[in-house]
Amino acid sequence: VDINDILRPFHPEKAPVLGEIPKLFFIDACRGEKSNPGVYVPRGGEVVPTLHVPEQGNFLIAFSTMPEYRSYEVKGQGGIWITALAKKLKEENDTVLNVLTKVNKEMVEGFRR
Q1: pLDDT digits (tens, 9 = 90+) for 57-70
Q2: In this structure, are residues 100 and 49 in contact, taking their beta carbons and an 8 Å threshold?
Q3: Of 30, 35, 51, 75, which is least packed with CB atoms within 10 Å of its CB?
């Protein structure tokens, strides 16, 4: 499914009443067939993820994986990313960006195990 097919109904020209309201989309789905083997990076520097918020419609879009890569799940429990995100959103009294950053860190730390 093309992401624009999902977003289009929420664009301001299609849904004017939502024009000034931020719309959050959390998409936990494969985006390809590749598996991510990971890489080793030096410790010490803090990497801050960059989120792209498109101008057309005030969207924040967070994917569980990069284009062309798989998204993983635990059978019977759902996707590991969306499960961690839902848990953190319930537990944390923080901004969405900070919660996404914490979930990203959790995914990286879990990847090392």
Answers
A1: 556 788 888 788 88
A2: yes
A3: 75
